[in-house]
Amino acid sequence: MPAERTPTERPLRLSPKVLLTDPIRMLPSLLLPLAGVLFLGGFSIGSFGWAAMAVVGSVVFAAVRWVTFTYQIVGDRMELTRSLISRSVRTIPLERIRGVDVSAPPLHRLLGIAVLRIDTGAGGDEKQEGELDGVTVAEGERLKAVLLWHARARTARRVQARGAAPAATSVSGPPSGEPGSGTPDVPDGSSVRHEVGDTTPARVFFVMPRKWLAYGPLSGAYLLTPFALVAGAVGLAFQWGSEFRIDRQVVVGAGEWIWQHPPLLVAALVLLVLAMPVIAVIMYAVFNWDFTLRASEGYLIAGRGLITRRSVSLERRRVRGFEFVEGPAERRAGLGRAWAIVTGLGDSETRGQLMPVAPRDVVLGVVGEAIGPIATGLRPHPPAARRRRLFRAIFPWLVIAALTVAAALLWSGLWWVLAVPALLLALLGVPLGLDRYRSLGHTYDGSRLSVRSGSLRRSQAVVERRAVVGWTLSQTWFQRRAGLLTVTAGVGAGTGGYAALDVGEVEGPAFAAEVTPAWLAPFLITDTPGAPGTVPAPNDSPPPEDAPAAPDAPGNG
């Protein structure tokens, strides 16, 4: 028997302005074929006619796509329908919606339209999840509010159906005055009450001051932009130069000519170095202009961007923690960044960003209010871990230095060009290895575990206990000789796992058993109850939420 269709709103189309954006967006893919037609046709009337037909064809194609595409909320799902010769319907259950992102690329902002993407946590790309490219800004915000309300209401109704009716803020319907207002989920018109922790009071956590754009040069990703642009230009010249009748030998000859004129080469490098902070500030502004983090209706909403304005919604009850990251320059300046650890979130490096590069105290304060404080009092790792950090930072460069010195003495003095930098890097490996060791740490405060590692990119992950779904204890041959192992907490969010590197053979299993005692206690042997490193009894602490009850549930102990 077919499912009952109860349309919450009538079928809608995208804004007609997509008839302008779609052909323009298709131009890059048409550029090379059009250029080929014009070159081969000798810029004759016929070649221009073929080129004009291609442009007109793209406009017709855009018009057909616009006419045949509709979207509609039908009962407990959203339907994206495309019908020309055959009919295709993509169905998105409202209760599976994890977030709704609204972005506006430059051309869209100029025309007053936006791109709305629906995140269902399916792990696919954004278009597979659901995308409306070309809704008006007002329609995008309206649809975002309606979809998020429906997603929360459906979840709350499901909780009530299981017999749980916790006290929380009640919601009687989606935004008033909009299609779909009322209480479609509750036939008798009663209000829907949401799960505890599902509603976050509406408030603004952070608005980035304009003067903080000066922090852009302290981020390595932005600072190296000039060199990335030069490398991209060279690669483009090699890849597409023939299409524009640029001989590859010309590019190679230009590079050789610059190399043979050291003053010009030095001048070019100086210009790139001088451009680094300026371009870093520009790039930081492009991506993080007016960065705002706020909470509304159970969602954390982050908005940012100068050219392309983007608003990302993270369902608060699916946030399992956060990751605080610092680079070397950021640490010296007292800065840092933060990302949310969220279940079912694709592209977490972009969509999960909670704070851009900003003062450390401010980042931790904002994240502490939005999610929770960072764990302190990290437990140090054994001295053997320091020896491993030093060995890995120094030994590879010493091997290279020894081989190049031997080559320089036996064959040619040119090998000294590689030997000297290798020796310098080996010397720099000493402070690097020591800093890597100082960065190691792990802890558990009874509700959240935290692990930290790294030097050039020091990262501390703070994860709620309920997010842990398994453990992996691994040892390499070198770790076995040193009496160390790596403990990785499997988490159904973020990167999927967070590791405590080079922990002692006793402390590692004890750390895992401390977090989930019922899982690991049967596999650990302790001679003296209550002694350091002993495992608590299984009944001392219940297993985390959403975790299998069986001790062997993790699957990889």
From TrEMBL:
Ranges of biased composition (kind: Low complexity): 161-175, 547-557
Domain of life: Bacteria
Membrane-crossing segments per the record: 26-45, 51-74, 212-238, 264-287, 390-409, 415-434
Keywords: Membrane, Transmembrane, Transmembrane helix
YdbS-like PH domain ranges (all copies): 66-145, 437-505
Annotated spans, Disordered: 159-194, 529-557
Protein name as catalogued: PH domain-containing protein
One Pfam family of this chain: bPH_2
InterPro entries hit by this protein: UCP026631 (IPR014529), YdbS-like_PH (IPR005182)
Species assigned in the record: Streptosporangium vulgare
Presence of keyword Transmembrane helix: yes
